[in-house]
Amino acid sequence: MIKLFHNLILALCFWMLISQVNAQSRLLTIDECYGLARKNYPMIRQRELISKTKDFSVENAAKGYLPQVNMLGQATYQSAVTEFKLPVAIPGVEFPSISKDQYKVYGEVTQAIYDGGAVRTQVKSHEANALVEEQKLEVELYRLNERVNQVFFGILMLDEQIRQNELLKKDIQLGITKVKALIDNGTAFKSNGYTLQAEQLKADQRTIELNANRKAYLDMLGMLVNQSLDDVQLVKPQSLTLSGQINRPELRMYDYQSRSLDIQDQLLDVKNRPKFNFFFQGGVGRPALNILNNGFDPYYITGVRLNWSLSGLYTRKNDRLLIGNNRQAIQLQKETFLYNTNLTLKQQNADLAKLEKLLDTDDEIIALRENIKITSAAQLENGVINTNDYLREVNAEDQARLNRILHEIQLLMSRYNLQTTLGREVE
To answer: Which first-to-last residue range defines the signal peptide (predicted)?
Structure first.
């Protein structure tokens, strides 16, 4: 029984240890940040509104195939009416007189037989407009990637600087240990130790500053992805393989806008086509169809009706010219976007080439500075140099490492910015 209880305690401790490790090692990649930022952005809810608007509009347009019902009524007064007069009076024969005030109330049902493609083209127009609006939203959402890049890589930069600052503090502590031994032996002044302690305090202040900046950046990233990131470790992205082809959502938006204009052009043709429909009209009037009856009578009329409006031919030429102007405007916007994007790409490619060259020499500089620092530490221990000389070499190595950190993160961030400029698939 005791052994079983002991095994249960060990299993519980092991499970708690595993849970703690998992909780502390929750990883977050930049691709996950892209997706979470999109889902959390308030504008994303507009996608559902666009979809509903399209569905309602298409459904309403499709109801043009259903019978159309109209209720009408009129009351008129005429200055003259039809009269029946004979040249001689016939005894016992009297023709009815028609009232000058006349009334009619009727309903009419029409069913389209041929609408010239009006309903079908209107449905296509609503669908095309919805695609344009959705792509405009996609363009807005895509801009979030730039914000994520700035904040994400800013945190990675601060993480590297914090780690480097800890290495600097170790070097300063090493100097303090060596100088303390010299002071104890009476071969160095206490002021030498005070100088190193002051530098150590400055490094502590730097740690406080870097941690505060990291928390601010982490809070911004947490707001973008709508998560608490206190226990999250950001995964440093790998280098990217970039293609030279621009694949931005703006280009698809221009294409959808052009397609929408094509459908508007089709609507011009539809507008000028003849329409045929079946109709049934029924109601009550005074007089009704029999004008000789001056009382209220029901009536109905049914048949086929042709409706061909030619007034659209007056403006057809100018309407097509307007559509052509809009198409040219879209093309100009597309060309301007590509021009500006290519300028940005040239600058980003130049920055990439510069950073790659700088990074190639950083390791050599660090190796040289590290050797100098090690030599200085030995010289300090032997009293050949003073603490200021030692700190100068320590700070020089620290600056060399900071430069490498800066160049490495900048290079990685530049690659992701370049990928964002070129366009990336959205999940």
So the answer is: 1-23
